[in-house]
Amino acid sequence: GYSQWHLKQHTQLVAERLVLLNELRRGALQQYFATAEAELHFWSTSDDILQAQADLLEVWRESGEGASLAAGLRKLYVQDNPNPQNLLHALTDPGDGSAYSELHRQLHPRAKLFVTERGYYDFFLISPEGDILYTVEKEADFATNLDSGEWRDTALADVFTRVREAGLAGEVVMSDMQPYGPSAGAPAIFMAQGLAGEGGELLGVIALQLPTDQILQIMNYTSGMAETGETYLVGQDGLMRSNSRFSDESTVLRTAVETDVVALALEGGEGVRNVIDYRGVEVLSAYAPLQLGDFTWAVLAEIDRVEVEQLAAAERPALAGAFGFFYGLSLWSIWYWRGRQLPGEEADMSSLALDAGDFGESGMAG
What Rg value do the Cα atoms of the chain yield, rounded? Predict the structure, then answer.
């Protein structure tokens, strides 16, 4: 057998690794969103994009009949598009000789390249009145109106409205992850920013649709995390924002997690506790908040209690085997990401001072 002291020491080491792993995940996510924000800001100040927006707006307004122009564009670029449904973006010029199609021919190749190369899902130019003047993907939202149209209750409409209300004084606005109807209900996040006209007026809004792939890759990286270690995200609605390691199906926006640690993290708390997780299994859980825009996600790193006890019972050195890689990677990551955080964003390392009470002594092998 092994002593309670031995188990407690081992549990403390595992807890520290979970905290470090959480810090790594948070840092990678912050970097991802900061990069997207910087790229959106870059495009929002590009002379070429501002000119394209002004020209598109002029064509749209000169038509006088926004609705009939919109219907015509959907017919040209969607209904009569010779490409399959998932490749509508392959059409650069439908050859109708219109002023809109000439502008599209100039703008589309570069916008499409940006979205493809940088791993975004879609790129939008929207009029101040809410008309979607341009998208790369040409999904069901193309040439619709975000104030009055079918997609007025979506996350894209929400970020558009918030940018318009803030005017040009506003910074980049971001949505939480939500199913997006035009993208077959796939989970999506939107970032948007205002476009400034030459006279300082709001020329419209530029928006990016971020896919969830990058977030899932960051969270589902399990190398060195033993058999039951996992990291995942939970939103303010209590639903997962990443996939469970233990499910063959996607758990994004489907699986509810109503544990104490999620509630604590969403309130801004950080620490380590023993809890019963969303599977009904007792786990050691490190929890921390991730603030994004004006909403919060809970970031969790967990391992089954049974495996912690098994690893301790094996009496291998604490840093050997499964946790060796885990520890080295985490330490490097802390050093790396710390240098990239904004002042005041440092992790509260006091959460490493764990109470013995957090690891309830009952029911453990003696």
Answer: 24
Q: What are the helix (H) ranges across the chain?
A: 4-44, 47-62, 66-74, 99-118, 155-166, 213-219, 260-266, 305-313, 322-338
Both tokens of residue 239?
Answer: 């639903």
CA distance 84 to 82: 7
Gap between the Cα atoms of 251 and 300, Å rounded: 15
The two structure tokens encoding residue 313: 């019972």
* Rounded CA separation 220/265 (Å): 20
CA 284 – CA 306 distance, rounded (Å):
10
What does the block give as tokens for 324?
């060796």
178 close to 148: Cβ distance less than 8 angstroms:
no
* HEC readout, 107-162: HHHHHHHHHHHHCCCEEEEECCCCEEEEECCCCCCCCCECCCCCCCCCHHHHHHHH
Neighbours of 84 (CB within 10 A): 8
Main-chain dihedrals φ then ψ at residue 142, nearest 5 degrees: -60, 130
Sign of CA dihedral 346, 24, 253, 186: positive
pLDDT 10s digit of each residue in the chain, 366 long? 557 888 888 899 999 999 999 999 999 999 999 999 999 999 999 999 999 999 999 999 888 766 788 999 999 999 999 999 899 999 999 999 999 999 999 999 999 999 999 999 999 999 999 999 999 999 999 999 999 999 999 999 999 999 999 988 778 999 999 999 999 999 999 999 999 998 889 999 999 999 889 899 999 988 778 899 999 999 999 999 999 999 999 999 999 999 999 999 999 999 999 999 999 999 999 999 999 989 999 999 999 999 999 888 876 554 444 555 555 555 555 554 554 444 344 434 333 334 333 443 333 332
Picking from 14, 28, 27, 11, the residue whose alpha carbon sits closest to that of residue 224 is 14
Q: Which residues of 155-188 are buried (b: 16+ CB within 10 A; e: fewer)?
A: bbbbbbbbbbeeeeeeebbbbbbbebbbbeebbb
> Does the global pTM surpass 0.90?
no
